[in-house]
Amino acid sequence: MLISIAVDFRRADVATREQFHLSEERLTQLYRTARTEVVTEAALIATCNRTELYAWVESDDIHEIDKAIQTLARRWMRTRGNGDQLLRTATRRYGADAARHVVRVASGLESQVLGDGQILGQLRSAYKRAAKSGATGPVLHRLFETALRAGKRVQTETSLLAGRNSIGAEAASIAHQRFGSLTNARCLVVGCGKTGERTARQLIKLGARDIVLMNRTLGRAEELAAILGGRAAPMETMHVEAAMADVVIVATASESPILLADALRKTREACGTSAYSLLLMDLSLPRNIDPAVLELAGVTLVDLDTLHSPILAAEEQRRNAVPEAERVCDEEVHDFLDWVATMPARDAIKPLRDALTEVARREVAFAAGDAVAERTATRIVAKLLARPMAALRKAVQRGEPLDAHTMMLFEMFAPTLPTESRASVRARTRLTDGSARPASAAPAPTQTARYVPVSAER
Fold first, then answer.
1. Catalytic: 329?
2. Of 67, 81, 102, 242, which is most buried with the most CB atoms under 10 A?
3. Do 64 and 139 sit in the same domain of this protein?
């Protein structure tokens, strides 16, 4: 059963979301401890607007699934109490609902900015991080490959990404609206990652001529400054540069505020700029600008929550593309669900496939050599097993348990099972083909998506 635990901007403000943010060290620990006998795969997506944990549970039993969710939440948050707090805030999704959600996330349909072009790259990075840790397996590999393919199709086949479609671009637009013109405004961008770079590029497009760039590594800031015609400055001069700026946009991966209220106040006084207006925009999660800056005269602070309202107004031009994007997502989700539904059929036919492949490989190698044996044997066996596989798929679709088919094939073609007993093979088949599914499952709390076994939805 595929499950997910999600905290996003729809149900939690930025102050709440940052409580559940994971540092790189804590994410490593989570991947190290997430998998159990029941939870065999896990992957976490983290962006500025959401943190979502996906997992594959080797059971369709609702009690086993609830227990797995509680365990994952506690290992995410380290303690029972914090894990329970997470579950009170989070949305839980099961089976087809979880699969459909991550595909929609990759396609920009669930973004704070409809069609956000950065989401696909963030999801790809999260998937690679999980795969590198060894926490993922065949189901999540297939799931994320499906999601990434859907996102790419939406980008190329629809107009969902028309116009401004990122937090950085929207932030630059708000700065432009606030000043009327950015030609004479000094703009400071702290953080030259993807968000910071998009922000800086949009500021230039909107007329900014005096732009200062900062990054943890000065070389990256200098590289981007050379491209955009701006100026790079070291991070240690941030408060001075902020005091002299009209617009400051911060988008870094810091775990704590880096632009501090008291330091900014003292620097503005020293620079004689306390009477001037200063627009601060925090695009980071956790927040990188001390909220206490709101107490300073002339200072306006815009964070991710504040950005939400103007973003909604900019979405109208992309709404017409939503039906076509949803069609793409539905196609990809259907293919994924079909793949999951036929897992027991693939398991059942595996011993026959392995036996035939070995025979074909040996015979082809004898006649034509090893160079062509592997590929030719695979193609021969695929053609031979096409009809048996189709018959097993139909049995799965009819809801028939595959215990008898599986055990017969194992007895005939794999009489010795070095790594798993016949009992475990039989149990695994029951858990994937749906024959052991509970007759009913009580719905979760109000923020919880309904329980739908992934193998049951077509």
1. no
2. 102
3. yes
